[in-house]
Write a structure and sequence with these properties.
The structure is a homodimer. Chain A is mostly helical. Chain A is built from eleven helices and no strands. Chain A folds into two domains: about 50 residues, Homeodomain-like (Arc Repressor Mutant, subunit A), CATH 1.10.10.60; about 150 residues, Orthogonal Bundle (Tetracycline Repressor, domain 2), CATH 1.10.357.10. Chains A and B meet through helix 7, helix 8, helix 9, helix 10 and helix 11 of A and helix 7, helix 8, helix 9, helix 10 and helix 11 of B. Chain B binds a DNA duplex through helix 4.
DNA sequence: GTCTATAGCAGGATAGAC
DNA sequence: GTCTATCCTGCTATAGAC
């Protein structure tokens, strides 16, 4: 059975619509009626397939969010592997690219980040899940790649804080689109996004290590 | 009438409890019954004093969030005024300090940032209000203070993006406490917060301009 | 697996006594 | 201004026919 057919089962349609609505308005603001209407199926289908509303929410993370995050990480890995030499610039660039362009469509990415922003503001079991299976391992991978470029005397904690700072910049320009648009007066069109990527890379790279060309050992 | 007496009116108590609960769990997850119970007053009091739930939420921003934001900005202004010379380091330091230490208690600050994080993820009229009256003017002020230190050929947009990047780092370490604690294994105790402040200042300063000592003209 | 029907409850809002 | 009592809507969840 191919993907298209599979996506036409009510269970799949419910997951799709639930994700969209939860991302847009949050868990409590969305009713299962709304979800099943959007998915064009019966109200009772949610309870039949997922038991209850909370478990549907978790399943959105298990069956949608996490696979998508893995695609983003794969993209990061591939971009990095295609470079002939590993450098901080290459790492940051691959990271920024995977997060801001990468394999996701604009809507997909916005949904993805909104769901995570909500979890960070108000953690549920979903964050537990994601932190354990996705964020933790990926962060470790980043640390391993960057460690060799940092000064020898730099502690492990300092390395972590530096990487978190890079994440901060990358994520902020996604989470806080409203604020960014308001301040700069610019919409997130391809032009501005290219501009943003350049800004993020430059800023992070400098923040990470000093000047751009190889101060990092 | 002094502040203490004033705070004992039901209207004030409702605002206090509403802010706490909205920050903790978000608008939709909190009922006015819960709020009035916490405020030890009658259910009907919300509708009497604020008309309806939505307007109570807005009033939390008008009567609590915004005045508090003004206190933070005042703190920033005073810290900066106490320096004998204006430098990027002084500005960033004052900014970080005002946001991470500043005049707010830990609980107050967390509430404050949570409310804003929710607004950024899902903007309502409250963000409109705050953007117009607080964020916009403050951002302008920051830009004015930093502009003179940036290279002459640096465009206005680039300046804005740089300042936003600094905000990104400052705010992330507040918004994403859960993630930071999980990754670093450290709680936000005074010790770690001092460590964070140093990290944020260093990273931002480098990101902003290159090396720490005066590369910025 | 999918539907209808409905139980059972919690929410926002208001009327009207005090 | 504050209270009680109540209306009405909309929610989750389930029972049971098909």
């Amino acid at each position: 059975m191919n993907q298209k057919e599979k996506n036409d089962f009510p269970k799949e349609r419910i997951l799709n619509e639930a994700e969209i609505l939860f991302a847009q308005r949050g868990y409590h603001a969305v009713s299962i009626r709304e979800i099943t209407n959007a998915a064009q199926c019966n109200l009772a289908a949610v309870n039949y397939h997922f038991g209850n509303k909370e478990n549907l929410y978790l399943e959105v993370f298990r069956a949608r969010w996490m696979p998508r995050a893995r695609r983003v990480i794969d993209c990061f890995d591939k971009t990095l592997a295609s470079q002939d030499s590993l450098s901080p610039r290459a790492v940051i660039q691959a990271l920024t690219k995977a997060f801001l362009e990468g394999p996701l469509s604009d809507e997909e990415r916005q949904r993805h980040h909104l769901l995570m922003a909500r979890e960070l503001a108000q953690p549920t079991k979903a964050l537990e899940l994601v932190a354990e299976q996705i964020m933790g391992p990926f962060f470790q991978k980043l640390a391993d790649k960057l460690r060799v470029f940092m000064p020898e005397n730099l502690g492990e904690e300092c390395l972590k804080l530096n990487i978190l700072s890079v994440f901060a910049v990358v994520l902020y320009f996604n989470f806080a689109r409203v604020a960014v648009t308001r301040i700069t007066g610019r919409e997130y069109d391809p032009d501005f996004k290219a501009r943003l990527m350049e800004q993020i890379i430059q800023f992070s790279l400098k923040g990470l290590g000093g000047s751009e060309k190889g101060d990092l050992r």
